[in-house]
């Protein structure tokens, strides 16, 4: 008897404690908002006017905080935190492992005379030194100083988790190389702020700062923790490596937006309470398409804070799930045959005068402003599509992209047919000076029509990786397990570069004697011509699109190794260096880390699959086969040679079938282990990742298919692996 599976099933779901974890939400959730955040409001209360102003300047203008002020802030933070029962503090950062990191230190400090006090100083607030050598650094450690330090990011508020004060920080080597997700993101945000603010001088000289905004939508699966523990593949790789799809999956579409199961609802309620306290403005919850799949979305926020909030949320979700005896799966494709999970990143630009630059305005001037940012965003994606593709590449996201549920790996832009027609009109703008008639026509009939168009624009396309949705672009191909910072760093970097180029081109035309508007129309016209090939309104899932995209010269990097290879393109390295986001060494190091991660993930999957196939699947299949053999022998004994042949026909064919599948698995595992050994021995990361992708991974399917066949033959009582129907429908 395969005990783990049945023991896990016995704990389900009939045990009362699993259902009784009921949670009540206070009617006024708003009263909990930011309870555990050193928010602007709290700072006003705890800081001197001077210190408060200094932090606000750091947030709004990026000015440095003086050491003396930092001391004041540290003491205020400590006092506030201690009033809430906090004993420890930590620099909270996001190393390239993909999770968050923290090392707790106590406020407790012994002083002379056997006494002790609670202490926290500006020095400790500003900088700490975790050991950098244990975090991924892509070889930076070998060429540069090994030590790294974390530095306080005052633009993201400190918060309390449990009894620890968490201070959002960047992580950097002593030689200045960034070792985390946040540091380059902050650089990219500064770059786009500067570029967009410069362009805004054409339209509104009052604008002094442009802040990119992000609203993410997080999808996830919940699985009962006992069932999760019974699946070694889920525990070790975050996904099931085998398992026959259940008779009922998502065919009936009865899960999406359906009523939320009670136990899940309790989890969600507790999560929402926690999010409120942490200042994460979650507003939306619903069931997703696949059974046991759900989604959560907040109000959008400034990108840096939104990224921190997503990382923090993933951490909080895992903890709260445990309290409700669930395990949360952020993997992009935990179960074959049902939809996977993504993390849509809605992106826009906001000014310090309160405008959304991707939202059209009330007069023609505002609409030209809208068009400027709209077309430049498309142009940025057109020029740097490969970089955007690389930013979402991972072993787990490969299962999703192009799998008829997520956007394909081809980067295209969807803007809706009506806006597309506007761009087509703009393509016809005369070169050079415009006649007064043309200007009026543009104002009234082209640009002027935009607000109406958007008002009733219900044009939606779920298959596009980069879609305009009324007042923001939605990057849809981001993986559910990813840190949003990666795609956001790329998006803001390429937008910055594009806006810088735009400014140079428009200024050059103004120099030749064109009016500002004329110059802008002229540049936009050329951009639209250049970008047309990336705009696609049709079905991104169709095979025709792949063919059509190839004709249009768009790339289709289907796998992570292919996508990551593009990152080292000189054009991209130059871009990063020009804008001061990464130097050449950092680009290489990050690329190396991602390739290594890819190879490691496939390597672990290969080992886990081999182990399960050999030690769990084959023995169970043989056990059942032996039963059948006994049965056949018995029949022969009772009925004699002739009659038994008819009576035992089905059993005999099952016995043969089992043997065939067992043999396929056995040979498959041997081949897999050989291919894995060979790939592991490769020294160069790019080649190694390609070998894992092209030589190791394809063998997974052979083993899986045979195992899933066996699952359908073998007596349920003997089957060792918890089944899909058990994991997906237990709530
Ligand atoms: P949907 O696109 O599913 O119809 P919404 O339009 O409400 O839903 O937006 C989805 C997500 O987009 C939400 O997370 C929301 O916060 C975010 N969003 C809305 N406006 C912006 C914006 N200006 N910048 C960034 N994100 C935004
Ligand atoms: Mg969406």
TrEMBL record:
SMART domains named among the record's database cross-references: Gln-synt_C (SM01230)
InterPro entries membership: Gln-synt_C, Gln_synt_N, Gln_synth/guanido_kin_cat_dom, Gln_synth_cat_dom, Gln_synth_gly_rich_site, GS_Type-3, GSIII_N
GO terms, biological process: glutamine biosynthetic process
Gene Ontology MF terms in the entry: glutamine synthetase activity
Signal peptide (residue range): none
Domain GS beta-grasp intervals: 87-176
Domain of life: Bacteria
Pfam families the UniProt entry points to: Gln-synt_C, Gln-synt_C-ter, GSIII_N
The GS catalytic domain, residue ranges: 181-617
Coiled-coil portions: none
Family: Belongs to the glutamine synthetase family.
Annotated protein name in UniProt: Glutamine synthetase III
Organism field: Chryseobacterium turcicum
